[in-house]
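Help: why these numbers?

___
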Amino acid sequence: MTKDEMDVLAAYQKMQQAMIDKDLETMRSLVHKNKTFTHMSGKKQTREQFFGEIMDGTLNYFRSDIHDPQVTVNNDRANLKASVTLRAKVYGMSGTWTLRTDTNFERISGKWIQVN
């Protein structure tokens, strides 16, 4: 992987850890204010709605493992595709789920930030 590709993957991993740690400041620093999230159920949320559910315990993430990441960088835009296995308790259901992620990033002020 190139340095940029490694930096994108590191930004994603840092976000996953911030979700586990319920570290709101770090989450906000890694996600653009206009980003939306789509859950496996299809439910869409704004950044602040998603973060609010993490912080109030509706969404509890315990472990995140990233498998076979593929990062594509084009100047100040990047995309990460991978399988992510999450151990979590979400909306009252505990379990381990492996989901596909297709996450876009933009380099803003030298930092890779998740964007739509």
